[in-house]
Amino acid sequence: MKKAKVKKDIPIRNVTVVIDGGMFLIPIMWIVGDYEYYKKVLKRKCHIECNEQKYFGGETSLVTDEEKGEAFVVIWLPEISFTINNYDSIVHELSHAVWNILSCTGVKIGPENNEPFAYLLGDVFSKSLVKFKKLYEKLNS
C-alpha cells in the first residue's frame, strides 16, 4: 500500500495588506515577510528607515504620514500560517495595534471602559482573518 503524500501548507509571506481600523478610521498595514521585506516596504511606502532588527516574532508601530498628517498602524509578522501559534501572534500584534489606535484617538481604557478595546480587537481580527484566509487559500489551492 502506497503512502499518500501529505501536502505541506504554504505560509503567507512577502505580502502587504491594509485593513481599515473601523470606526476610528486609522488603517492597519500588515507587512508579512522576512525582516528585509519589512524594511523595504517601510522605506518605500512609509518613508521610514529601519537599521536594526529589535524583535524577531513581530512588531507593531503607530506611524504618521507627515505629508498627509494621517496616522496609521504598521504590523510586521514573518509569516501567516493559520496555526495555533500564529493565531497567538496575530492577536498579540493586533492588541498592540488596537491600543495604539485608541490612545491616538484619545479613548481612555480601564476597568470601567474596556468595551472599545474588545470591540475594536474583534473587528480588526475578523477583517484580518478574512483577507489572510483568501490569500492562504489561493496559495494552497
Keywords:
3 helices; four-stranded mixed β-sheet; alpha+beta; 141 residues
Explain briefly what this protein structure is.
It is built from three helices and four strands, in the order ββαββαα. By secondary structure, it is an alpha+beta fold.
Taking the alpha carbons of the first and last residues, their distance comes to 26 Å
The main β sheet shows up as:
4 strands, mixed
Q: Helix coverage percent of residues?
A: 40-55%
Oligomer classification = single chain
Task: Indicate how many domains the architecture comprises.
Answer: 1
Topology:
Blueprint: E1 15-19, E2 28-32, H1 35-46, E3 59-65, E4 70-77, H2 84-104, H3 115-139
Parallel strand pairs: 2-4
Antiparallel strand pairs: 1-2, 3-4
Helix pairs in contact: 2-3
What can you tell me about this protein's structure?
α2 crosses α3. This protein has a 4-stranded mixed beta sheet with strand order 1-2-4-3, with helices on both faces. It is built from 3 helices and 4 strands. β1 and β2 form a beta hairpin. The protein is α+β, with helices and mostly antiparallel strands and 141 residues long. The two termini are 26 Å apart. 41% of the residues lie in helices and 18% in strands. The radius of gyration is 17 Å and the shape is globular. It has one domain.
